[in-house]
Amino acid sequence: MASGLRRFVGSLSRRNLSTACANKQLIQQHDGGVGSGKSLNLYSAINQALHIALETDPRAYVFGEDVGFGGVFRCTTGLADRFGKSRVFNTPLCEQGIVGFAIGLAAMGNRAIAEIQFADYIFPAFDQIVNEAAKFRYRSGNQFNCGGLTVRAPYGAVGHGGHYHSQSPEAFFCHVPGLKVVIPRSPRQAKGLLLSCIRDPNPVVFFEPKWLYRLSVEEVPEDDYMLPLSEAEVIREGSDITLVGWGAQLSIMEQACLDAEKEGISCELIDLKTLIPWDKETVEASVRKTGRLLISHEAPVTGGFGAEISASILERCFLRLEAPVARVCGLDTPFPLVFEPFYMPTKNKASCLESFKVPAQHCCMNLTAHGS
Question: In this protein, which residues make up the domain named Transketolase-like pyrimidine-binding (predicted)?
Fold first, then answer.
């Protein structure tokens, strides 16, 4: 990605979402104003957020496959012991049933926090999420809603997951009016964003980057705090090119920015955090300053959410762009096992961008031939 940058440089839409504030607690950006913290990895931060959600709201429930003993990634460890099996419990191996039950629970005024064991398994519940949860408020003329619904799911590469445990399905749900889609990049972000999602008056799909569950460690405030949804964050300011991503891909993009800086390229890096409704204004302001945009995500390039960002920014910034928008993404293949290193977008994957006129997606699809 870094070497590609060298060649490459040379109104939120609310979509039928409620804007009512379901919780009066002050929403903090970053950890400003929040009490002292301690070093946590991402799964521990998720666990801490779930503890707080259950402790502060007696209407909150956590359930899913194997959550009673902590779940496969240990995110729900200790919850059943502390809050009882009536509030934290295992479900049958039926994703449609998990989400269907969660919708009914939320419709009765509760906070339903449903876990899908892997994001790859969310598709049996697709009908419930897309045709029921997302349309509940709209079809009733705002008389009823299931805004207390949060669906958690570990997504993305894990290093050895293959095609049934490593998919990134966020784009499917970004197409659905009535849902919010949120993806954190770090422990501090994960805790604050998850609490915001649980307390948001809209159904939310919260994807957790499983690659970072134990790898990502940082100082996390111990207090109850929330981070605002639908607000992108400029992690790194720059003047030559804008980079946009989310989740685990942010750490890869930060490495690319550092390498590019050594070659005199100033990169502005933006974490989108909320994909729907996404913060067009922040990205637009950055691109109007830099004149260039590169988007990176793990999902396949065709139909990925990067395409939506590209189209929107092209419409808004056409006269300011000094080069075509580029995408460095996963390949248009099932997620492989032994060939995962070829599939994953890395900081060097844009190295075949020999001119501004070469679309990044073509470079990505040719990487296996070049062994990059």
Answer: 40-215
